[in-house]
Design goal:
Number of helices: 2
Helix content: 10-25%
Order of helices and strands: EEEEEEEHEEEEH
Radius of gyration: 17 Å
CATH architecture of one domain: Sandwich
Strand content: 25-35%
Length: 149
């Protein structure tokens, strides 16, 4: 992790009109290893369950939410799947309130080679990623896929 591309972001979702359309942040997975989410005590964060249902994330005050990112998913051959999540609009009676969250995106060092862990490969779970990739190349590949690079 030393000298990685880790970043702390401060996110502000402004108040909305009552009953807005759409979502505040569309469904996605994070590129990094893990995401630590501080704050976000105002409702809106949801995660997608294995059964395909959106579940409200309501951590107690002061709790830390931990999401698995795509780099860890790749490293573990999907034994630890990346967390699909989104942020939905507030209920009409909460629309006048802003929402704040402070995610910390933990990244490997750019030269770290993401190579499937041997313990995560067996006859029932062949290696999905037989060709290792550097964390930097993986990051740039994913940023290009989502048109941010």
């Amino acid at each position: 992790m030393k000298d990685g591309n880790s970043i702390l972001r401060l996110l502000h979702y402004p108040p909305t009109p009552p009953n807005p359309t759409g979502v505040r942040a569309g469904a996605h997975e994070d590129i990094n290893v893990i995401t630590l989410l501080l704050g976000a005590e105002e409702a809106g964060l949801q995660l997608l369950t294995r059964e395909g249902e959106w579940l409200d994330v309501s951590p107690p005050e002061g709790a830390l939410v931990v999401n698995i990112g795509d780099m860890l998913q790749r490293l573990t051959n999907h034994k630890l799947p990346s967390t699909s999540h989104r942020v939905v609009n507030p209920a009409a009676d909460r629309a006048h309130l802003p929402r704040y969250s402070i995610p910390f995106f933990l990244h490997f060092a750019p030269d770290y080679l993401i190579k499937t862990l041997p313990a995560c490969v067996d006859a029932d779970h062949p290696d999905r990623y037989p060709t290792p990739i550097s964390a930097q190349d993986f990051l740039f590949e994913r940023l290009r896929e989502i048109r941010l690079a």
